[in-house]
Amino acid sequence: MTTQLPTDGSEKPRGGRLPRRARRTQLLGAALEVFVAQGYHATAMDDIAERAGVSKPVLYQHFPGKLELYLALLEQSCEQVIVSMAKALESTDDNKQRVAATVTSFYEYVAREEGAFRLVFESDLTNEPAVRERVDRVTTECAALITPLIHDDTGLPEEHSQLLAVSLVGMAQVSARFWLDERLHEQAGIDQRQAAALVAGLAWRGIGGYPISD
Q1: What confidence category does residue 28 fall into, taking pLDDT thresholds of 50, 70 and 90?
Q2: Residues 108-147: pLDDT tens digits?
Q3: Cβ atoms of residues 135 and 77 within 8 Å
Q4: What is this structure's pTM?
Q5: Residue 25's domain is classified under what CATH number?
Q6: Domain range for residue 53?
């Protein structure tokens, strides 16, 4: 997940004092840019401070170390995925459309310009238990939102419905990342909406094939 940071003079200008919450938001934004571009291991706190236009002491006032900063950013990014999933499922009462909304939410997330999905799905720090816990939370909580819907629609036992829900989440996020990488590599490829519809169609044909049991 290593790319080059911009070298066009777009670094954040050093500024005056900001309210604590605003400063924290600014630092997280700068950290996201650097971590996505360089990965966790290649990033130093100096890089983030420079990107944010602050001194290292200011950065350490908010985050005691690089891991704590990464975890705060990862927590924020994971929450965005889960909230987006919840909103997608709440957008309709039709289960076929819910499957489509689920897949679409992942495609929309990976397509965001800031590249936050790479922290969640392509972290180079997944051997760290605290990171693994947060990354796994995305799958488990998204699947927990979907499981009762599959159970109600198919009549399958809860544990069967949960496995299908996890599979749906995995299919959506893996295919979305593959789609984006192909688009970036080829500078072309399948349109985002069409790609999401193709995968949603595959998922629905699978889940929709389970009848309600007696």
Answers
A1: very high
A2: 999 987 888 888 888 888 889 999 999 999 999 999 999 9
A3: no
A4: 0.81
A5: 1.10.10.60
A6: 20-64
Amino acid (1-letter code) at residue 204 = W
**Residue 38, both tokens:** 């360089």
CA distance 45 to 91: 41
**What secondary structure, in 3-state letters, does the chain show?**
CCCCCCCCCCCCCCCCCCCHHHHHHHHHHHHHHHHHHHCCCCCCHHHHHHHHCCCHHHHHHHCCCHHHHHHHHHHHHHHHHHHHHHHHHHCCCCHHHHHHHHHHHHHHHHCCCCCCHHHHHCCCCCCCHHHHHHHHHHHHHHHHHHHHHHHHHHCCCHHHHHHHHHHHHHHHHHHHHHHHHHHHHHCCCCCHHHHHHHHHHHHHHHHCCCCCCC
11, part of any domain: no
Whether residues 172 and 99 share a domain: the answer is yes
Residue 98 and residue 55 in one domain: no
Mean pLDDT of 140-165: 93
